[in-house]
Amino acid sequence: MTDADRSREGEQLLHLVFGGELVELGSTEFRDPSKLDVVGIFPDFASAERAWRAKAQTTVDSALTRYFIVHLHRFLVPEHLSRPPRNVG
Is the dihedral of CA 70, 63, 20, 24 positive or negative? Predict the structure, then answer.
């Protein structure tokens, strides 16, 4: 069963969207973690993806700025950890 299927069944699947400037391309190390931009926590993947796309679009001119979606529900409910992550970008 996918995250989308569980979400349609009414199960709450929290997702965090955040980002900032990376040290270098291809890295996930942030230049200054104290300046991370927390966009928000969303109740499902679809709304998190919309927020991620909107925020990422505003930083298109900054090659080192990246935004990510974290599947919080996978940390809150351990059986979700065994599911492979979905790459959105």
Answer: positive
Q: Provide the whole-model pTM.
A: 0.75
Give, in order, the Cα–Cα distances in Å from 29 to each of 4, 19, 42, 59, 64.
29, 11, 24, 17, 11
C-alpha dihedral, 37 to 81 to 44 to 19, nearest 10°: 10
Mean pLDDT for the chain?
84
**CA-to-CA distance for 11 and 13, rounded, in angstroms?**
6
- Cα 67 from Cα 36, distance rounded (Å): 10
Third-level CATH fold of 3-82:
Alpha-Beta Plaits (3.30.70)
